[in-house]
Design brief:
Number of domains: 1
Mean pLDDT: 85
Structural class: mainly alpha
Radius of gyration: 15 Å
C-alpha cells in the first residue's frame, strides 16, 4: 500500500528519502514506471525529480484553470 503524500513530503523534507523513493512509495508509482518506459529511461533520482516537477506543474496548471472557471469577475 502506498504511503500518504503528506507522510512522503515529511520524509523528503527530513532527508530520509530521495526523489526516487518519494515516487516509488507513493500512489503514482506505476505511472512513473510507465513514464520511464515510455521515455526510454530507467527509474533514478533525476528522472523521479523531473517526473515530480512535471506532474506538480500539470496539477498546478489544472487547478488554476479550475479556479478561473469558478470565479466571477466584476
Amino acid at each position: 500500500m502506498a504511503e500518504t503524500y503528506e507522510k512522503l513530503v515529511q520524509l523528503k523534507q527530513e532527508g530520509k528519502i530521495g526523489w526516487l523513493d518519494f515516487v516509488l512509495r507513493g500512489e503514482n508509482s506505476n505511472d512513473f514506471k510507465q513514464w520511464c518506459e515510455d521515455h526510454g529511461t530507467k527509474p533514478c533520482e533525476d528522472a523521479a525529480e523531473f517526473y515530480v516537477d512535471m506532474t506538480d506543474r500539470k496539477m498546478f496548471d489544472h487547478q488554476i484553470l479550475e479556479n478561473d472557471d469558478n470565479e466571477e469577475w466584476y
